TrEMBL record:
This is Solute carrier family 15 member 1. Interacts (via extracellular domain region) with trypsin. It catalyses: L-leucyl-L-proline(out) + H(+)(out) = L-leucyl-L-proline(in) + H(+)(in); L-aspartyl-glycine(out) + 2 H(+)(out) = L-aspartyl-glycine(in) + 2 H(+)(in); an L-amino acid tripeptide(out) + H(+)(out) = an L-amino acid tripeptide(in) + H(+)(in); glycylglycyl-L-isoleucine(out) + H(+)(out) = glycylglycyl-L-isoleucine(in) + H(+)(in). GO terms for molecular function: oligopeptide transmembrane transporter activity; symporter activity. CDD domains: MFS_SLC15A1 (cd17412). InterPro entries: MFS_trans_sf, Oligopep_transport, POT_fam, PTR2_symporter_CS. PROSITE patterns: PTR2_1, PTR2_2.
């Protein structure tokens, strides 16, 4: 059965691919934040495991192709590995339910190792599934067409690529929204089970859709795997060359010609073409090393930024959608506008030049990321090192005050109702404080534990100067753009304070509450009850990732009088500043990725496409492994420096590739095939002549 001149079975395959890509990219979009916030891993471990997973997803296709070609056939491989995949996604969803081990119901899992074990099993199954079916689905789609449907087949591959991007685009928008929801049985948490559950459900849908179409598919019997033949041919050539290494054997034109004792001329000629292309692949992994950091380092970079787009509040993991959105726009634009313009300028923009430009652009994108990181670092607070202490002063009195840090370290003047920033001291040197306010003074001997932040409350009262040190229990900027808020009671009586839905309890005079977490980018209603009189005020709008101390000073009518002291500044660098680096990287992807596969296919015989696809996917896997090695070995403490390092590495590789490309000569595989056919015909004719002469001679006898 056909529809619009396409086999009907194609539609099932395209829908299946859409659901599978939705499932994969949706899960991958929230993965690094799941590691960081749910499993509580630090940035480096989260990045490392993320790239290990991506590398696995690109290594397993080689396994999938072997299973399909040598044993099960494409259809059975797709079905059986999809089942594995669906189970993996389901396990992943279960692993993120915090109520699974949260016995004390405090909202964080009590036994994290159970969750880690489950999610690692889930990820391994997903890597097996997604990788295993990747090479089969597109090839299986290609199998559905007849010989004379070349045009439809080409169109199918572009629709197929579009469905991949549509799936990844939608899921990268939707899953982070699901993740940002609050859900849970006993305590409300970020909704990871939903963010992993929806991809799992879609994978099940993909499987069902694919099986429903089963009757219509053209199923080609497994032909044996060309990869195995090529490997054997290469292996034999090396072994044979080694055996005949002494001088008395004549040299052969190419080392692969040493396989001619066992393998036919055609296979050797084809293997030569493939190796020529694979040799060019050697530098390519460096590109993927940078490209795949969108989902790890760049997403973590976005968590330290301001995601407020007016009416829209953007989640850090949603910034990744910039890439698929731009791809959908850029691919047609580049094909229809940019390439023709370059052609008009009489520039011969060969495939290898395109790939070189792609590498250069990707390294430029990382320079942009590094520049942005430097701007972000300026806004990040500096926390005390091990032997240091930080003290900030809040003057709660009506007179200005001077605080002297003894012995003769520093003297600071603070006006009424004002506060300083944090001052850093070597803990061992700081012995005492001397506070002068009005005409009174007081000395306070202090011993600090070191490595912490403290707030010094100073107030000149009728009975003398009050100087109280508070311990500020904050060692890092609040995650995910949340805000921390605490209160200081600057009234003579006790007050009961609430902000939004959070109760801060009862505060005695001049005491401080603990910090509590609030979602970023909003204002909150603050209520204080003093001697059963209720006073309230709406707070100012808090940004993302800040910490504030709010001082309660009194009540005019029923309006609360408060002053704000900023402990940690909010994220001031806007997420929109990530768009330039995403734009440059997407341009790089368009000229690099799309060209790379086309070029490979044009330079090798048609039956070798599987080998080249395996090689191409292998470059992606190796690229992700490079991230692990570089990030692990460089030990750079500054994130911007790591970005610069990656940019420099890719630039170096780009230059090497340009040199390799310069010496590459393009070939036409069809011509070589035709030559081989010619030679074979001649050989057959020659053999026939010999045979005829032989028979003639025999008949004369």
């Amino acid at each position: 059965p056909s529809c619009f001149g396409y086999p009907l079975s194609i539609f099932f395959i395209v829908i299946n691919e859409f659901c599978e890509r939705f499932s994969y990219y949706g899960m991958r979009a929230v993965l690094v934040l799941y590691f960081k916030y749910f499993l509580q891993w630090d940035d480096n471990l989260s990045t490392a495991i993320y790239h290990t997973f991506v590398a696995l997803c690109y290594l397993t296709p080689i396994l999938g192709a072997l299973i399909a070609d040598s044993w099960l056939g494409k259809f059975k491989t797709i079905v059986s590995l999809s089942v594995v995949y669906t189970i993996g996604q389901a396990i992943m969803a279960v692993s993120s339910i915090n109520d699974l081990t949260d016995r004390n119901r405090d909202g964080s899992p009590d036994n994290v190792s159970v969750h880690i074990a489950l999610s690692m099993i889930g990820l391994i199954l997903i890597a097996l599934g997604t990788g295993g079916i990747k090479p089969c689905v597109s090839a299986f789609g290609g199998d559905q067409f007849e010989e004379d449907q070349e045009k439809q087949r080409t169109r199918f591959f572009s629709i197929f690529y579009l469905s991949i991007n549509a799936g990844s685009l939608l899921s990268t928008i939707i899953t982070p929204i699901l993740r940002a929801q609050e859900c849970g049985i006993h305590s409300k948490q970020r909704c990871y089970p939903l963010a992993f559950g929806v991809p799992a459900a879609l994978m099940a849908v993909a499987l069902v859709v694919f099986v429903i179409g089963s009757r219509m598919y053209k199923k080609v019997q497994p032909q044996g795997n060309i990869m195995i033949q090529v490997s054997k041919c290469i292996g034999f050539a090396i072994k044979n060359r080694f055996r005949h290494r002494s001088k008395e054997f004549p040299k052969r034109e190419h080392w692969l010609d040493w396989a001619s004792e066992k393998y036919d001329k055609r296979l050797i000629a084809q293997t030569k073409m493939v190796l020529k292309v694979l040799f060019l692949y050697i530098p390519l992994p460096m590109f993927w090393a940078l490209f795949d950091q969108q989902g790890s380092r760049w997403t973590l970079q976005a968590t330290t930024m301001d995601g407020n787009f007016g009416a829209l509040k953007i989640q850090p993991d949603q910034m990744q959608t910039v890439n698929p959105i731009l791809i959908v726009i850029m691919v047609p634009v580049v094909d229809a506008v940019v390439y023709p313009l370059i052609k008009k300028c009489k520039i011969n923009f060969t495939p290898l030049r395109k790939i070189t430009v792609g590498m250069f652009l990707a390294s430029l994108a990382f320079v942009a990321a590094a520049l942005l990181q430097v701007q972000i670092d300026k806004t990040l607070p500096v926390f005390p090192a091990v032997g240091q202490s930080q003290i900030k002063i809040i003057n709660l009195g009506t007179d200005s005050a001077t605080v002297q840090f003894e012995p003769q370290l520093q003297s600071v003047n603070v006006t009424s109702m004002e506060s300083t920033g944090y001052l850093t001291f070597e803990t061992s040197q700081l012995e005492s404080l001397n506070v002068i306010s009005g005409n009174k003074n007081t000395t306070k001997v202090i011993e600090l534990p070191g490595g912490n932040r403290h707030t010094l409350e100073v107030k000149n009262t009728a009975t003398g100067i009050v100087a109280q040190l508070l311990f500020d229990n904050v060692t890092s900027k609040p995650e995910e753009g949340n805000n921390l808020i605490r209160f200081i009671n600057n009234l003579p009586d006790t007050v009961n304070v609430t902000a939004g839905d959070t109760s801060f309890g009862t505060l005695t005079s001049l005491s401080a509450s603990n910090y509590n977490l609030f979602p970023g980018g909003g204002k909150h209603n603050i209520t204080a009850i003093r001697n059963s009189v209720v006073c309230s005020v709406t707070s100012e709008v808090f940004g993302f990732g800040s910490a504030y101390t709010i001082v309660i000073n009194g009540c005019t009518g029923d309006t609360l009088d408060v002053t704000y002291s900023e402990d940690i500044p909010p994220n001031t660098v806007h997420m929109a500043w990530q768009i330039p680096q995403y734009f440059i990287l997407t341009c790089a992807e368009v000229v690099f990725s799309v060209t790379g596969l086309e070029f490979s296919y044009s330079q090798a015989p048609s039956n070798m496409k599987a080998v080249l696809q395996a090689g191409w996917l292998l470059t992606v896997a190796v690229g992700n492994i490079i991230v692990l090695i570089v990030a692990g070995a460089s030990k750079l403490s500054e994130q911007w420096a790591e970005y610069v390092l990656f940019a420099a590495l890719l630039l170096a590789v780009c230059i090497i590739f340009a040199v390799m490309a310069y010496f590459y000569t393009y070939i036409d595989p069809n011509e070589i095939e035709a030559q081989l056919d010619e030679e074979e015909k001649k050989q057959v004719k020659k053999d026939q002549d010999v045979y005829e002469k032989q028979t003639e001679a025999d008949s004369r006898m």
